[in-house]
């Protein structure tokens, strides 16, 4: 096999060692030996040639060697595997079909389904969108509208202007940060039920502040309070934010950080499932709006369903694997074989030079794969026979052989296209949103993988595997999916190589940031919940029977309240801990009181279940009010959060209770 790239001057020739099985044993390939020819000559503007071997450009090109070697190893592995693979057939959508599917994914299918276009839930959802998010929705609705009218002239499709009822905005207009926003209505700004003032949700389009004024001063601070697409709209024509453009070595990656939020940082897994559904819809709309603003095409890929294995280890869908594994280990969220392979690699020390880069012996890896399929679940497989490089090869094989890529068919191209965004900060923001869009099983497995890769990098002084090396080796395993046609892979390989390696580098370097749910999205969820509650109460007020039932229920609940729960003084919250010896405690709020302080007070009680619990096992939860349920991080300032959600209940429990 021989691939060429005129643009990069690289020739990759498949390695065929004589009398060798392609391994690292005697007669096989040794570390760093593979056939790779580079053309270091390049024409200058006046037509003369010069040698690039000493230039920085040449160093950047040579640093891709690990990538090309990994591609070669992958093709050799596939060459030794004669089993037939069924390629995923990419469905070519009709006009408007992609946008229709997008609206369904965003939870807005009722915008083009006639019977439910006035859905209360949809109206509430749309009322919380920022101007750039609305523009993204409008664009897709208009495309679907035009398509439907062409197909069926008699079908009534709502006009996009009627859907949003934008007062002074023209269709699709993007906020410039200075115009008043319709996101925050007078009602939602100043009123809660009962006439009390409620929390005000700043979604990045505050009518008194420009997003520019709210942006952190540092270029390395990631602002999670303002919509990323709103930020991009404001900085699109500005030189600000373009400082961190381009590639570079490990040391040149910006030290991005998330400034502390007094109301607490929200991580994936901290919210209740009903709120996470809202997060998914908002993240999809926000990502699309961000790509729209930055001029990058965003299209979800769609694959025709194919027949997959319904048992086994390799080439089995993650959902099937987890179903099998949960019979063995209830509640497990990561495939057991995946966990075991990582453990096997770490058991032998992460200081091994060339770890992940040097392949295992090909024939031995294939034999181990077959043996694992037969014996893993029986518990009879002998792990002492698995050498470290073989385990690393099996781990990468597991990722490559998934019937659908770990980053999913739908979003694989969007992950690849992150490299096209203008600045590193915008690339990181897009990756954050893409992680939110992954199915839970994919997201959890990716998290474990990235954490493992970071541990490998932590031993780089010994194993010689820097962030760049690890990214180069792992990128082909996540981004070159065998389900797509080989023609597509070959055509895109050289184009995507450096970009996907950089995306891989970002995912490893900034993984802690990627699992954070931006505050502006959490605030939009809060706003949706608040508006839904208001509409429900208004509907009840219009019907006498429902109003009477609500009154009777409220009266009954008031009678049932204990003296401790009633008439809680201003500035005091009551915290429940049903699983601890001290089940309830009144807590006086102060400026410096944090969630960790409250947990510590309960854990200081030296009786009952508390003796068996560790601090890292229990958390304070915010429940109800304008959120379903939210696990609080230790550094949450309780007085600030109480002001944001005064109607919440506060409960201490473990994450698994």
Structure description:
This protein is of the alpha+beta class and 657 residues long. The chain has a domain of 87 residues: Phosphatidylinositol 3-kinase Catalytic Subunit, Chain A, domain 1 (Ubiquitin-like (UB roll), Roll). It contains 25 helices and twelve strands. The protein has a five-stranded mixed β-sheet with strand order 9-8-12-10-11. A three-stranded antiparallel β-sheet has the order 1-2-3, with helices on one face. Strand 1 and strand 2 form a beta hairpin. Helix 4 crosses helix 22. The longest helix is centred in the C-terminal third of the chain and has 24 residues. The protein is globular. The two termini are 55 Å apart.
Quick structural gist:
With 657 residues, this protein is α+β, with helices and mostly antiparallel strands.
Write the layout of secondary structure elements.
Blueprint: E1 2-5, E2 10-13, E3 36-38, E4 41-43, E5 49-51, H1 56-62, H2 65-80, H3 97-105, H4 120-127, H5 131-151, H6 160-164, H7 186-190, H8 211-214, H9 228-235, E6 266-267, H10 273-293, H11 318-328, H12 336-347, H13 362-375, H14 388-401, H15 409-417, H16 424-437, H17 440-458, H18 460-463, H19 467-479, H20 486-509, H21 511-514, E7 516-517, H22 519-541, H23 544-560, E8 572-576, E9 584-588, H24 595-603, E10 618-624, E11 627-631, H25 638-644, E12 649-654
Parallel strand pairs: 8-12
Antiparallel strand pairs: 1-2, 2-3, 4-5, 6-7, 8-9, 10-11, 10-12
Helix pairs in contact: 2-19, 3-5, 4-22, 5-10, 9-10, 10-16, 10-22, 12-14, 13-14, 19-20
């Amino acid at each position: 096999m021989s691939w060429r790239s005129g643009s990069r001057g690289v020739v990759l020739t498949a390695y065929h060692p004589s009398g060798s099985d392609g391994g690292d044993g005697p007669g096989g390939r040794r570390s760093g030996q593979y056939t790779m020819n580079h053309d270091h000559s390049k024409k200058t503007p006046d037509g003369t040639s010069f040698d690039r071997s000493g230039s920085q450009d040449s160093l950047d090109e040579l640093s891709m060697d690990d990538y090309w070697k990994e591609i070669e190893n992958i093709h050799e592995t596939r060459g030794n595997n004669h089993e037939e693979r069924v390629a995923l057939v990419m469905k070519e959508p009709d006009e408007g079909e992609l946008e229709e599917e997008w609206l369904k994914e965003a939870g807005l299918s009722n915008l083009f389904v006639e019977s439910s276009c006035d859905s209360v839930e949809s109206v509430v959802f749309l009322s919380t969108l920022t101007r750039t998010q609305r523009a993204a929705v409008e664009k897709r609705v208009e495309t679907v509208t035009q398509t439907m009218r062409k197909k069926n002239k008699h079908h009534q499709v709502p006009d996009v202007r009627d859907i949003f009822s934008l007062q002074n905005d023209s269709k699709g207009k993007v906020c410039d940060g200075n115009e008043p926003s319709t996101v925050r209505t007078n009602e939602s700004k100043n009123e809660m039920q009962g006439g009390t003032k409620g929390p005000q949700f700043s979604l990045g389009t505050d009518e008194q502040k420009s997003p520019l004024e709210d942006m952190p001063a540092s270029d390395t601070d990631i602002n999670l309070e303002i919509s990323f697409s709103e930020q991009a709209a404001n900085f699109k024509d500005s030189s600000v934010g373009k400082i961190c453009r381009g590639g570079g070595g490990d040391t040149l990656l910006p030290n991005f950080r998330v400034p502390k939020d007094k109301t607490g940082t929200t991580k994936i897994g901290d919210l209740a499932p009903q709120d996470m559904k809202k997060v998914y819809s908002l993240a999809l709309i926000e990502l699309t709006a961000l790509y729209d603003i930055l001029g990058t095409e965003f299209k979800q890929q769609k694959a025709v369903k194919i027949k997959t294995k319904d048992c086994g280890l390799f080439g089995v869908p993650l959902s099937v694997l987890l179903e099998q594994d949960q019979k063995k280990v209830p509640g497990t969220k990561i495939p057991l074989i995946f966990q075991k392979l990582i453990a096997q690699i770490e058991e032998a020390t992460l200081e091994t030079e060339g770890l992940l880069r040097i392949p295992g012996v090909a024939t031995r890896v294939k034999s181990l794969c077959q043996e694992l399929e037969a014996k893993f679940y029986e518990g009879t497989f002998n792990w002492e026979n698995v050498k470290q490089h073989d385990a690393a090869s099996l781990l990468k094989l597991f990722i490559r052989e998934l019937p659908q890529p770990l980053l999913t068919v739908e979003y694989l191209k969007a992950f690849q296209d992150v490299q096209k965004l203008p600045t590193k900060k915008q690339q990181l923001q897009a990756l954050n949103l893409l992680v939110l869009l992954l199915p839970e099983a994919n997201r959890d497995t990716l998290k474990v993988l990235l954490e493992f890769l970071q541990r490998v990098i932590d031993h780089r002084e010994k194993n010689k595997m820097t962030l760049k090396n690890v990214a180069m080796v792992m990128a082909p395993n996540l981004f070159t999916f065998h389900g797509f046609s080989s023609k597509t892979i070959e055509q895109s390989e050289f184009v995507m190589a450096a970009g996907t390696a950089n995306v891989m580098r970002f995912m490893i370097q900034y993984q802690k940031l990627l699992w954070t749910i931006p505050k502006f999205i959490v605030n939009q969820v809060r706003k949706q919940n608040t508006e839904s509650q208001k509409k429900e109460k208004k509907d009840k007020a219009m019907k006498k029977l429902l109003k009477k039932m609500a009154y009777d229920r409220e009266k009954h609940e008031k009678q049932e309240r204990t003296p401790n729960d009633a008439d809680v003084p201003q500035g005091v919250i009551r915290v429940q801990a049903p699983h601890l010896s001290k089940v309830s405690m009144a807590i006086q709020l102060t400026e410096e009181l944090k969630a960790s302080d409250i947990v510590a007070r309960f854990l200081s009680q030296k009786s009952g279940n508390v003796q068996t619990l560790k601090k890292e096992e229990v958390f304070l939860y915010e429940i109800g009010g304008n959120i379903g349920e939210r696990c609080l991080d230790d550094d949450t300032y309780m007085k600030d959060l109480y002001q944001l959600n005064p109607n919440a209940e506060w409960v201490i429990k473990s994450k698994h209770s």
